[in-house]
Amino acid sequence: MSQPESNRTLANPARFVKGVGSHQAELLERLGLRTAGDLLFHFPRRYEDWRDVIPISLLTVGQSATVIGTIADVEHAITGSSRQVLYVLLEEGKHYLRAIWFNQPFDASRFPRGSQLLLRGTVGERGGRLQMVHPKSQRIVPGEEVQRSHMVPVYPLTAGLKQQQLRRILNAAIEGYVPLLEEALPDRLRDQLGLCDIQTAIRQIHFPDTPESLEAARHRLVFQELLVLQLALAMRRHLVRQTESAEPLLLTPKIRDRILGRMPFQLSAGQAQAFAEIASDMQQAVPMNRLLHGDVGSGKTAVAACAILLAVAGGCQAALMAPTEILARQHDRTLRQWLRNSRVRIALWTGSVSHRKELAEEIAAGQIDIVIGTQAIVESNLQFHRPGLVVIDEQHRFGVRQRSQIRQLGGTMPHYLVMTATPIPRTVTMTVFGDLDVSVLPRDPNRQTVVHTYLGDESKRDSWYNFVARKLRDGRQAWVVAPLVQADDESVVGSAGKLYENLANGPLEEFRIDLLHGRQSAEEKDAALLAFASGQTQVIVATSIVEVGIDVPNATVMTIESAERFGLSQLHQLRGRVSRSEHAGFVCLFPSVDQPEAGQRLQALVDNDDGFRLAEIDLEMRGPGNLFGTEQTGFPPLLIADLTRDAALLESTRETAIELIRTDPTLSQPEHSRLHTLVTTRYGAALDLADVG
Fold it and tell me: Which of 151, 202, 519, 526 makes the best surface tag, with the fewest CB within 10 Å?
């Protein structure tokens, strides 16, 4: 049942689109297509160019071709081996082509004699007759289907929904609802950038006339999608600067000397530059919002410690949050060592901390200067007396809204620093962290330890573990990493529990081995790490819980089992565990399956030690959703933009957005009203922008 034209809106349920019944509406709902507007923005994932139709008389064997003819005959047969075969004979003048499908349900209504049929496939020959086996087919119904001059869209589907059905539905949606689309981009901006209008873009993205019109449509839609995202981030930045205030924390020469005097080493040039940028922000009366993006081994913890001490020197409190209790306890030990014999008061707050009530009262009274912990700091609703700085370590999966909640510690709004050693491509940084200023911290070349990385296989496993044993006898220690605690899948060689048993009763039986994983209690994990750090344990078999920040300088050998189950960025983080001393590090990657793509990714790690380059490779191979779990960022997924392919356009839209928000911070001017609606509708909940303007 179609909707009367006078009542049509983009919000009409999809069932009112011509040709959509209740069953089709249920199938469309599985794809998230609930309204007519949803259908218009359900973009093809690729196209098949069926424009170059070749006469049957000119076909050659082995050729991939598209033909159109009249169905002359249809036959359904069963072979001697009980295999069903469907034959369709296509006629064009005096020339014939036979299409063959094996073991497919016979449906004569799909191929009525005398109707026009389009076939696309590889031409073969049998018995002197031309044929196509399992070609793609499309019945040509006048007025309904794609014309010969068009490229054919291929859409994401769900079970029960066919391409031909969805094309007809999209064609009806376009004809009925595209005229209702309002232009969001101001005319002056479209003219300046040479962008087509939205109605043309939607028509051409679904059923393009030419490759050129398709590219123009895609360019327009990608630009709009990225511009809306960058506008949302720019509005958020402006909102923070205009509505939130923080305590200025001045870095005087005296305070700077006192802070640097507490560091056990001289800051590298990169560290000094990053601290200068952070200190400049913290001297402002608006909250700092900065990302400290450092490669593995760049020394970001020391930079964060300097920022924390700047807050304490200004009479404020600081909170340092880590993703795991293991890392929180390591930060606690490090800062206590650096600040021993000082008057700075430090407290550890995790899910397992004792005397919670008394400690919470001391924090609220301002008797604690630095609180180090996990997300329990937020979950416990701790109140600070005078919060000055919040540092989040390795929380790249937190969206803007979650990060905003983390900063609510009571009292004034604190300055905010998020830091990560996870390699993140620049394009992802401009989206996931687009509301933050960025300081990039490269590794200090003067402190760089060589790490040798190898790609192993079953034939090299014994010799590798013999090498590990030799290093252990030389006094070094070793990590063995697996993706799982226990493997239900028998193909996964590298479950931590299974590895522990195999090594303890096999090639490393003469050494002291322990097990570390996320299911253990905090006490068990602490005991395992302390024993390893002190040298009591020589080998530790662990899951990826050790990926982030854990520091055991004497551990210079690492084996990573089922390595294809980790991303490149994660593997680079793991490799960083064996570059913590003056001794060379050694890493061997053992995949559990032989897959060309997996081998290509792992070889990229062997060939590259630059985390930022590896991040770009990982993005190209796996996409941003797989890299960072975008469902956790709080942002809806991108519909058409590709952060690899569209990197230059992302830069352009960022510049455009910054300029627009500079002149119209809340997009309140009439020509920006539609953009304002798009921004608040799509990103308002994620960025707390629903009430802007």
Answer: 519
